[in-house]
Amino acid sequence: MTTSPWRSWRRSPRPAGTAAALALAFALTAGAAACATQETGTPGRTADAPGRGPGVAAHTAVTRDDPEFTGTFEHGFAEVDGVRMHYVKGGSGSPVVLVHGWPQTWYSWWDIMPELAEHHTVYAVDLPGLGDSTGSPTGYDKATLARYVHTLVAERLGVRDARVVGHDLGAAVAFQYAARFPGDTERLGYLDLPLPGPAMDGAAYRSLSWHIAFHSQRRVPEAIVHDNVRDYLELFYPQVSFRGSAFGGTSEKSPFSDEEIDEYARTYSRPDALSGGFELYRSLDKDVQDTEAAAPVKAPTLLMAAQGQLDGIRSTVDARMTNIVRAVDVPGAGHWLVEENPGFVADELLRFLD
After folding, report:
1. Separation between Cα atoms, residue 165 and residue 303, nearest integer Å
2. Euclidean distance between CA atoms 33 and 36, whole angstroms
3. Residue 87 falls in the annotated catalytic set
4. 245/243 Cα distance (integer angstroms)
5. 127-161 burial, b for 16+ CB within 10 Å, e for fewer?
């Protein structure tokens, strides 16, 4: 694949350190019945960005000096049922809605957004309560989150022909969007997530990985992580990379740059956002019920998975997506498809979306 000239590679991570903290977290999960006190907080406010001086909104710090962003994209906010939802918009052409997973925000799509925007109007959203979206949604089950995203996209922004693309738990949100609002969904991009539902119930889902079981506990992850958000994220990202332990490797090198980790840590350091991220996992049993109740998605669907993981993921979605027009492994990529092989992901999406 050729690389578009706009792509800049910001891949200079710090050493990831040791995975001992993750092992400790896993050990503590086994004793999760001994609850710690959950930290609470008010919805995060926009603060001055570190190093940027007074009056500079935190949500603009990572983009304000990037000419690729300032020449094409803009930040926006809209009120949706008591939540102030943040999104980034740019480009022209048919609309594409990008939905992030955990522990990320709209910024997870940045490596491919300029290329997508050459052909499409791109909307990258922060899920309710996460990123720079503030306020508390009525639930973190993916059907509820899909309703918030749909209200933002279809009613506030007036987009009734969305191509909805989701990654990780954002893929489950994208699925619910397509299943519940088929008239407003032109296409579905589903990236690297076993679908909670008839093929995989909540108990089976929690057994897939230590972090799913850990994050599903009440109050415990907040108590362990709250003062060490950046360290926790920095340790976590390499685990599910292509050369990380989840894929049989031993590398602790992160596919994320320091800038990216800093940006995610900025938002997840808000106590409400940290808890909201864990609520994405605590709602898995509800997600299973909602998938079982949802109508199968008939929109043309693109399925993408980490290298070697396609068959396992497809086995969970085949009964719920009846029009999968293309299904591919992303070579050389673990769970972080965009970060680990952005050129391949962008090319596949453009081919599918066009």
Report:
1. 10
2. 9
3. no
4. 7
5. bbbbbbbbbebeebbbbbbbbbbbbbbbeebebee
Distance between CA 21 and CA 215 in Å, rounded?
14
Catalytic member of 111, 168, 272, 329: 168
Catalytic residue flag (residue 354): no
Among candidate residues 117, 5, 134, the one with its CA nearest the CA of residue 82: 134
Structure tokens at 336: 């972080």
* pLDDT higher than 90, residue 102: yes
User: What letters, b where the CB count within 10 A reaches 16 and e where it falls short, cover 224-258?
Assistant: bbbeebeebbbbbbbbbbbbbebbeeeebebbbbe
Q: What CA–CA distances, in Å, run from 241 to 64, 245, 251?
A: 29, 8, 9
Q: What are the extents of the domains in the chain?
A: 21-33+46-353
Q: Please, are residues 300 and 353 in contact by the beta-carbon 8 Å criterion?
A: no
Question: Could you please report the per-residue DSSP string of 143-191?
Answer: HHHHHHHHIIIIIIS---SEEEEEETHHHHHHHHHHHH-GGGEEEEEEE
The pLDDT confidence band at residue 354, using thresholds 50, 70 and 90, is confident
**168 counts as catalytic:** yes
> Model-level pTM?
0.88
Judge contact between 297 and 323, C-beta under 8 A: yes
Q: Fold for domain 21-33+46-353?
A: Rossmann fold (3.40.50)
Angstrom distance (rounded) from CA 343 to CA 2: 7
Which residue is catalytic, options 140, 205, 237, 281? Answer: 281
